[in-house]
Design brief:
Number of helices: 10
Bound molecules: zinc ion
Shape: globular
Structural class: alpha/beta
Mean pLDDT: 95
Number of strands: 8
Strand order of the largest sheet: 1-2-3-4-5-6-7-8
Length: 274
């Protein structure tokens, strides 16, 4: 990436985890990334696939490292490139469905809708999103959603198709009103480093009105490095800054919020092996 490393944050009062990152895209050996995160008290991560190859990679990584769980899916921006024909699409989805059943794959994601970029037509994105909703339900795994400029369509499709038992909005990007609608549906909001950005008062308001029991924290590393390290390369260790920003937005003690997020993670992704 060529960007300088962000310095390690002050460790959180108790061990925490990063609910969404891309270990394959971080410019460091996985073992080193995990060791650096553990030194900052972030001793578990969920690494997320965006296409068939990175989904396989994520599942393999989770099988190889006890502190890693995986999520598998075709990212909405990758849907057009993922298959040229309906039969290719079915084969790719069958592969995602197979991976989703693996014991260390703990979510189907990232999937959803992205109307900000135009790398895939909305209709194509919706077909794939619908298929992923189905895979999550069949596998009994949480659905990890990428929603960019597509809030209404994402909510409408979940309502129309019937949402899986656990739904997570990764890198939540809506306002307080949308957060309340998500909370009423029981969806979890995973906040990324964006909640620490100076111009993100709307995200902090969203965090403030979201019940702590529905909050997760993530880095989306190597993207979205939290303040005060914007411009430097992001790693799972940096989620500590995001947890502290969330605690401030919610006027909660950091240790208290850590305990709640830990319980949320166990409830949604299942317990981590000791
Ligand atoms: Zn991501």
């Amino acid at each position: 990436m060529g960007r300088p490393q962000a310095p390690p944050p002050e460790p959180l009062p108790s061990a925490g985890f990063d609910s969404h990152c891309h270990l394959d895209l971080i410019d460091m050996a996985v073992a080193d990334t995990l060791a650096q995160a553990a030194a900052a008290g972030i001793d578990r991560v969920i690494t997320v696939g965006v296409d068939a190859a990175s989904s396989r990679w994520s599942a393999d990584c989770a099988a190889a490292f006890p502190s890693v769980y995986a999520a598998v899916a075709i990212h909405p921006n990758e849907t057009a490139a993922a298959a040229a024909t309906p039969s290719q699409r079915d084969a790719v989805l069958a592969e995602i469905a197979r991976l989703a059943m693996l014991p260390r794959v703990r979510a189907v994601g990232e999937t959803g809708l992205d109307y900000y970029r135009d790398s895939a037509p909305p209709q194509v994105q919706r077909e794939w999103f619908r298929a992923h909703i189905d895979i999550a339900k069949q596998a009994g795994k949480p659905l990890m959603i990428h929603d960019r400029n597509a809030h209404e369509d994402v909510l409408a499709m979940l309502a129309a198709d019937g949402a899986p038992d656990q739904v997570i909005f990764h890198c939540y990007s809506g306002d307080a009103e949308l957060a309340q609608r998500c909370a009423r549906a029981g969806y979890l909001l995973s906040f990324a480093g964006t909640v620490t950005f100076q111009n993100a008062a709307d995200l902090r308001e969203a965090a403030a009105v979201t019940p702590a029991e529905l909050i997760l924290a993530e880095t989306d590393a190597p993207f979205l490095t939290p303040s005060p390290n914007r411009g430097k390369s992001n790693t799972p260790a940096q989620v500590a800054h995001t947890v502290r920003a969330l605690a401030a937005a919610k006027q909660l003690d950091v240790a208290k919020l850590c305990a709640v997020i830990e319980a949320n993670g166990e409830r949604v992704f299942g317990p981590w092996p000791a």
